[in-house]
Inverse folding.
């Protein structure tokens, strides 16, 4: 056999939840998904695959060969970890969106419109604006250059 059955049992095995997440994820409950500590389980899976025996993996029975892990089992455990982590992140995102929605509904939006008297103070009369623009200096005043024609001379077109 390529694995210890004790390791993959649902309630007593250290990798039971991630094994079920990899093989039949519809049978798991939300509390089982949230009960998995992903970083700690990742290090335990790595130790189990390498053969060092993690602190969560029970020692082999007396007289039994040291535990071996097949590539198939290692891949399924990693797949289960990815599925558990994805579900945990999805639920965290949903809860954060719910909290933000409740916060936005609880506090009314600020009034950003100006009151009519304040609006008249900020926007000047149109005639005053036009008079101010007429007194503005000409941006081309005093600029002499080959690109600008002289206003007093008419351009001559050669015949």
């Amino acid at each position: 056999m390529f694995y210890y059955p004790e390791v993959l049992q649902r309630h007593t095995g250290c990798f039971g939840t991630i094994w079920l997440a990899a093989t039949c994820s519809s049978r798991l409950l939300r509390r089982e998904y949230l009960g998995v500590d992903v970083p700690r389980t990742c290090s335990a899976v790595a130790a189990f695959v390498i053969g060092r025996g993690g602190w969560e993996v029970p020692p082999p029975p007396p007289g039994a060969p040291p535990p071996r892990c097949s590539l198939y089992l290692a891949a399924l455990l990693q797949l289960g970890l990815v599925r558990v982590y994805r579900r945990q992140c999805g639920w965290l995102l949903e809860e954060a969106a719910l909290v933000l929605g409740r916060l936005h509904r609880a506090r009314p939006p600020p009034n950003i419109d100006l009151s009519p008297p304040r609006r008249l103070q900020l926007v000047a009369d149109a005639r005053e604006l036009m008079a101010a623009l007429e007194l503005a200096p000409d941006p081309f005043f005093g600029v002499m250059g080959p690109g600008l024609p002289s206003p007093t001379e008419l351009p001559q077109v050669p015949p």
